[in-house]
Amino acid sequence: MSIDQHSTEPASAEVPATGTSADDPNELFVEGADWETVVDAIEDDTLTVNMGPQHPSTHGVLRLVLELDGETVLRVSPIIGYLHTGIEKNAEYRTWVQGSTFVTRMDYVAPLFNEWVYCMGVERLLDVQVPERAQAVRVILSEFNRISSHLVWVATGGMELGATTVMTNGFGAREHILDLFESQSGLRMNHAYYRPGGLAQDVTDDFVERCESLLRYLPGKIGELEDLLTHNPIFVDRTQGIGVLTGEEALAFGVTGPMLRAAGVPHDLRKAQPHSGYEQYDFAVPTETAGDSYARYLVRIAEMRESMKIIRQALDTLPGGEVMVSDKKIRWPSQQALGPDGSGNDPEYIRHIMGESMESLINHFKLVTQGFTVPAGQVYIATESPRGELGCALTSNGTNKPYRLHLRDSSFVGLQAMDHMSRGHSISDVIVVVASLDPVMGGCDR
Amino acid sequence: MSSAHTSSGSSAYDTSGLPLASAAGRLGTDVPAPGRGTNGSSLTNEQLRERLLTRFPDLRADEYRGELTVFVEPGQLLEVATYCRDDEEIACELLSDLSAVHWPAGDHVIERQISTTGWPEYRTSREHGVVEVNYLLRSVRRNHRFRVSVGTPDDAARIPSVTSLWPTANFHEREVFDMFGVEFPGHPNLVRILMPDDWLGHPQRKDYPLGGVEINYENDKFIPPPHERNLREVVE
Questions:
Q1: Any idea where the NADH:ubiquinone oxidoreductase 30kDa subunit domain is (chain B) (predicted)?
Q2: Partner of A121 at 20 to 30 A CA spacing, among A73, A99, A429, B177?
Q3: pLDDT (tens digit, 9 = 90+) per residue, B1-19?
Q4: Whether residue A226 is found in the same domain as residue A360
Q5: May I ask the CATH architecture of the domain B32-211?
Q6: ipTM of the complex
Q7: Are residues A60 and A194 both part of a single domain?
Q8: How many CB pairs under 8 A join A and B?
Q9: Which runs of consecutive H residues, i.e. helices, occur in A92-131?
Q10: The sheet that has A63-69: what strands, in order across it?
């Protein structure tokens, strides 16, 4: 890459402009122009290039300052902080239940995981046990969310390498998963479906049927993506050996999730610190050893299949019963269910509060407007999101609002490894490295 | 592809010079699946506390909801953190999380919307303002996790940087510096990360208002490129 592979003489100010070089009088030397300064400039100077924020792989809000020597990357500095969502600060002024609607907007590709980890944090502070049905539904929906997140990753990652068919196929398959989310929570993303203590409402009657049909549909679509990419020479050439991160380096940079597993470390919080009944499901933790972008692709594809295994088992053993804790100081008294008209009110409950019990109405009103109080203390709980460890650090001072909410998001942590992974690669490989990292900037800024 | 390119020189964006955690080097090639007990089982909170208190008898440890918290003075942090990383039993290769909580001095009304909502009012009162910085240390090999909590006065918040132990702390410490105003001596590039470089104030402090904030750029006309800025001056 360096220009001195092509020039025969080192550029030097001492070279006399006599037409011959000082070392070899027979060699002709170019005269009449400031070639020496040009050569000096090219040899000594590096070029600083701002990549983004408009590049699609960086979702509009990440700027990469590249220092280049020719096309070779010397240094990458990720500049974040363009989103300014202020979710952590805002949540300090909302009730504990409203916090769920905030955090779901952080990592908008895997919103259910944010809600999940936040709710688990509140539940640990409250010291309540979530009903088994709610836990199983959380596992099913979250694993679908993991598949949809990985599909977005394959789709956008492929698109950045020019494979638009991968993009349309990936997003097309994801749509069907979002349809399932919409049928259960009413929204395709930003669900606020998980609430501290359980779920906002029970799943619909056709929930299992919908999941079954998705489980029949998805393997074919994932297989299609594999057919397009796994042995595609362009894809393999562009990703193999690019952005290598060993297991030791990944841990040093705090990189977890598929990137750590692609480097040979079989670390998965669903196995290491199981929660919500993960210990009862049988699934493997896919690993690769290369630690490069291609290995990350293989791990994520394999993870989608493992997720489907978990969903299959959870559907087969889906328990009945409540989806919310029975504590009347936490649960809303109305048994809300999505009616045929799309409203969420239970006629039985309306009859009760309007005709029979004023106290029940007051209780509901106070719970909705003021929320419940949570014992003082601080907890940290983590789950395995599609991007790695997603942690929730919650501090309560005994009031009806979080005193401090902090989410440890893998996009934020992982971007630090960009510099290390990109050095020495060509500028076009930076795109691959960013893509293999799978960052979502909403989680990065918070 | 070529191997990692090293280069000299520094810039405002420089993130080089960060040592990789030497603890990670001890991880070896065959890392056992955590939680399967192939390479030593995880330590319980009781064992962790005992081992830490044997080495540092003046530490205070607390357990809440099954989570162990060790309270450390800023001056002692590096020693304790190095021990937690390098000790064979504790072996925390991973800095899971680093975040802070601000407890301001004086009366602090938590509810600011009493007039409109009728929500109950909560007040706290403290003599000294404190910023608590929490380090979540995690051992992948041993499969345990605990919290190291460091308190520092909020008007002169200084805690030594742990970036030399875990490069992960780089962004985290910049965020805590940006949001809470805690300085981390030893950090290779302690500049704001979420807010503009010349922003005044630290938004996640409890005494920083929510909403209705003027645009707090110090240089509202021209923001020089980072390498020309006097960042220390802006910070004060």
A1: 71-212
A2: B177
A3: 333 333 333 333 333 333 3
A4: no
A5: 2-Layer Sandwich (3.30)
A6: 0.82
A7: no
A8: 186
A9: 96-103, 111-126
A10: A47-51, A63-69, A72-79
- Grouping H, G, I as helix, E, B as strand and the rest as coil, residue A5 is helix
A391 beta partners: A382, A408
Of A73, A79, A395, the CB nearest to B101: A395
What are B32-91's pLDDT values in tens digits?
443 333 344 678 888 889 999 999 998 889 888 889 999 999 999 999 999 999 888 888
Residues A320, A272: one domain?
yes
CATH code of the domain covering residue A175: 1.10.645.10
Give me the residue spans of the domains in chain B.
Answer: 32-211
Same domain, A203 and A133: yes
If pLDDT is split at 50, 70 and 90, which confidence band does B222 have?
A: low
In a domain, A342, yes or no: yes
Please, what is the angle between helix A132-160 and helix A111-126, to 10°? 150
Query: What phi and psi, each to the nearest 5 degrees, are found at residue A240?
Result: -70, 130
Are the beta carbons of A75 and B167 separated by less than 8 Å? Answer: no
B18 vs A189, A438, B14, B21, B163, CA distance in Å?
A: 38, 23, 10, 9, 7
Q: Give the B window 61-90 contacts with A, CB below 8 Å.
A: 64-65, 67, 69
Q: Chain A 11-40, CB below 8 Å of chain B: which residues?
A: none
Integer-rounded Cα radius of gyration of chain A = 27
Number of structural domains chain A divides into: 3
Check CB contact under 8 Å for B2 and A424: yes
CB contacts, 8 Å: A378 with chain B? 64, 69, 101, 134, 147
CB within 8 Å: B34 and A285:
no
Task: Say if the Cβ atoms of A285 and B33 lie within 8 Å.
Answer: yes
Residue A154 and residue A122 in one domain: yes
- Shared domain for A118 and A251, answered yes or no, is yes
Judged by DSSP in three states, A331 sits in coil
In a domain, A13, yes or no: no
Residue ranges of A 112-171 with Cβ closer than 8 A to chain B: 124-125, 127
Structural domain harbouring A50: 18-79
- C-alpha closest to that of B91 among B173, B161, B28: B28
Residues on chain A touching B101 (C-beta within 8 angstroms):
378, 395, 403-404
Residue of B nearest to A246 (CA): B29
CB of A193 closer than 8 Å to CB of A173: no
H helix count then E strand count, chain B? 6, 7
Q: What is the mean pLDDT of residues B114-141?
A: 76
Q: Which of residues 406-435 of A touch B (CB under 8 A)?
A: 406, 408, 412-413, 415-416, 419-420, 423-425, 429
Check if A44 contacts B (Cβ < 8 Å): no
| Together in a domain, A218 and A349 | no
Residue A6 lies in a domain: no
- pLDDT higher than 60, residue B114: no
Tens-place pLDDT, residues A12-39: 444 444 444 556 655 555 555 555 665 6
In a domain, A5, yes or no: no
pLDDT for the residue numbered B39: 44
- Per-residue pLDDT reduced to its tens digit, A392-417: 999 988 888 899 999 999 999 999 89
